[in-house]
Write a structure and sequence with these properties.
The chain has helices spanning 3-13, 17-23, 27-38, 43-49, 55-76, 80-89, 93-101, 106-112, 116-127, 132-138, 142-153, 158-164, 168-179, 184-190, 194-205, 210-216, 220-231, 236-242, 246-257, 262-268, 272-283, 288-294, 298-309, 314-320, 324-335, 340-345, 350-361, 366-372, 376-387, 392-398, 402-413, 418-424, 429-445. It is an all-alpha fold and 446 residues long.
């Protein structure tokens, strides 16, 4: 017999365990069996429809049937018929007990216990005391088991603790808020997650233990924090764990070992930034190995030269020259003079070409001017601040843009020029250009 045949047989002959079991092999026929044959909640149907397209439709059917009976009773008072209906469809069994019966009954409690959250609210608001049946129902959901222990039992219970221990977080908060102290079961569960193992050690055990330490050592971050805040000192296993991450290897060396070691330095040297920090804060001196790693980054090669070597070296300069900004900074702050290699490195970015000419060359240079003339803005600035006079090449460059052609005429030529005038014709700068010329003529007349 297949699901369809089982459904059709039950439609004629009524529900039974065998046909329901077969129908539950297919969510579609399980749903039809539930709403057309059982016409009430059944756990097997509910489990089959979980996380399927029929789950919501099944819940809507049950709630609709239950709601009608509940609303009728709300107006007309309690009676067996409406109570039986809400208990069959479960969803308003808790509301019926609370607002209509205004007290507990075995039938409404039994119906509410088919859903963990309804069982919890029934115990809290209707029974107003713990019971084995409501506790058993809520223990199917971790957060409800914890809430039951906190708000209904108002203390620990073996069953709620066992349920909470299915998850590291709830094991930790159960120990903290319910047991208010450590237990083997909650610690073991918390240790499934390095973060909660750390919190368990610091807030519940309030001391170090082998099992929490072993658990945190699965995470470089929490191995470091455990060593710092729980052990309050170095250990081989926490150090080895921290060394799986460059940053925490550095922090371990800095804050826990408080001295350099080969293993922490080797771990730190997986990152140019951390290698630089290690040299600066732990070694407090330059070394070939930390410098070599720092030189994989133009930025940290520059910082290494500035703050650790405190002077130029071929290796750091070469690394800094991979980036125009840091080539410029290297020349300005470390070499403190112009060099061919740092100058060539800035050619990729006209902003730093301009700054190099302004701050390091401190005067015009033919090759730099050639690069600058690729951009009207920097050609104008170069002419104004570095050449400090007009030239054909810088003027030609600015004339590609009417804005800078106007500025060039006003600030560099300080006079009319046919090239700059031609560049601003029929643009918004033409009026300003003419105003500038008229003003100049008036000054000359005066």
């Amino acid at each position: 017999m297949n699901p369809k045949e089982a459904y059709e047989y039950a439609l004629k002959n009524g529900p039974d365990e065998n046909t329901r079991k077969i129908a539950c092999e297919d969510p579609e026929y399980a749903y039809l069996y539930g709403v057309e044959i059982d016409k009430s909640f059944h756990e097997d149907i509910d489990n089959t429809l979980f996380n399927t397209e029929y789950e919501e439709k099944y819940i809507e059917f049950l709630m609709d049937q239950s709601k009608k009976a509940y609303e009728y009773a709300l107006k007309n008072g309690p009676d067996e018929q409406t109570r039986n209906i809400v208990c069959r469809y479960i969803y308003y069994a808790y509301e019926y007990a609370k607002n209509i019966d205004k007290g507990p009954r075995a039938d409404t409690r039994k119906a509410a216990c088919k859903r963990s959250y309804l069982a919890y609210w029934y115990a809290l608001d209707v029974d107003k005391c713990p019971r084995e049946d409501t506790r058993e129902a809520v223990c199917k959901e971790l957060y409800l088991a914890y809430s039951y222990a906190k708000n209904v039992d108002k203390g620990p219970n073996r069953d709620t603790r066992k349920a909470a221990c299915e998850d590291s977080y709830y094991a930790y908060v159960y120990a903290k808020d319910i047991d208010k102290g450590p237990k083997k079961e909650t610690r073991k569960a918390a240790c499934q997650n390095p973060y909660y193992a750390y919190l368990y050690a610091i807030e519940i055990d309030k001391c170090s233990k082998e099992d929490t330490r072993e658990a945190v050592c699965k995470s470089p971050e929490y191995a470091y924090f455990y060593a710092k805040n729980v052990d309050k000192g170095p250990r081989k296993n926490t150090r080895e764990a921290a060394c799986q991450d460059s940053y925490y290897a550095y922090e371990y060396a800095k804050s826990i070992d408080r001295c350099p070691r080969e293993d922490t330095r080797e771990a730190a040297c997986k990152s140019p930034y951390i290698a630089y920090l290690y040299a600066k804060d732990v070694d407090m001196c330059s070394r070939n190995d930390t410098r070599r790693i720092a030189c994989k980054s133009a930025e940290y090669a520059y910082y290494y030269a500035k703050y650790i070597d405190q002077g130029p070296r071929e290796s750091t300069r070469q690394a800094a020259c991979k980036n125009p900004e840091h080539a410029y900074k290297y020349a300005l702050n470390i070499d403190k003079c112009a060099r061919k290699d740092t100058r060539e490195a800035v050619y990729e970015d006209l902003y730093f070409v301009y700054l190099y000419a302004l701050d390091i060359d401190k005067g015009p240079e033919d090759v730099m001017r050639k690069y600058i003339c690729k951009d009207p803005k920097y050609a104008y600035k170069y002419a104004l601040h570095i050449n400090k006079k007009a030239r054909g090449d810088t003027r030609k460059a600015v004339c590609k843009n009417p804005e800078y052609a106007y500025y060039y005429a006003r600030d560099v030529d300080k006079d009319y020029h046919k090239d700059t005038y031609k560049a601003i014709l029929d643009t918004k700068y033409e009026k300003r250009y003419n105003k500038f010329l008229n003003s100049k003529m008036k000054e000359e007349i005066i």
